[in-house]
Amino acid sequence: FENLLTFHHQMEAVSHIAAGVAHELRNPLSVIKGFLQLAKLTNDHQKYYDTIMSELNRMNGILEDFLSVSRRKLDRRLQSPANIMHSLTEIIKAECLLHDVEFHLKLTETDQQVHVNESMVKQVMLNLLRNSVEAYGESNTNRVLTIETKIENNQYVIEVHDNGKGMPESVLRQLGKPFFTTKARGTGIGIPLCKKIIEDHGGSFHIQSTYNVGTKVVITLPLEMQTGDNSPY
Ligand code: ADP
Ligand code: MG
């Protein structure tokens, strides 16, 4: 009986990890797919080559993350979050183009640096981007996605705002629970993972949403280094 229990727990762990890996790889995979489609449509292969290559590298990095036994240490560097957002522009634009979404980028505080793990912050943004473009139904016509960076209350703030279908109270109540999804092919890992990554940075992650109006994700990152488990010092 004990062996069976152990086996059950192991299988459960394996399936959770597998779902996590699959979820994380789906983002770069869909970017690569989109860029290959664009490359074919526009016949401009050179233009998309770099992004495809960098997404492949990202997939590689994600796999390494999952494979590394100790994922505890968060390797952070002083960087401008606005610049990280800027470096994602081409990917976001392409994704928005494919989903017929108008994209607005309002970057302020471009010189302000924060201790971040760049690839994890990118992972968060691409997860949010994916959720936003998936939040538009057929009836949504004026689709607008806005990403904004600013400083408020001595915190670095990143906001992602979409005018998609929003979330009813019943969804909002469950939001953040691992594996909670309303999508036929969803995994329910995106939001919990984003929350964990931002909280590992000493920041906060909040979602405001109104059904049939839209969704706003507010991320804050501390301006001062807060010492804790994940301190790079
Ligand atoms: P998944 O995308 O795999 O379903 P997530 O953890 O990323 O998992 O999201 C959980 C659920 O939260 C989604 O299934 C969806 O119902 C809701 N959700 C997340 N982001 C948005 C958004 N921008 N607009 C509307 N609903 C959202
Ligand atoms: Mg998601």
TrEMBL record:
Its EC number is 2.7.13.3. It comes from the Bacteria. It catalyses: ATP + protein L-histidine = ADP + protein N-phospho-L-histidine. Residues 20-225 form the Histidine kinase domain. Keywords: ATP-binding, Kinase, Nucleotide-binding, Phosphoprotein, Transferase, Two-component regulatory system. This is histidine kinase. It comes from Halalkalibacter alkalisediminis.
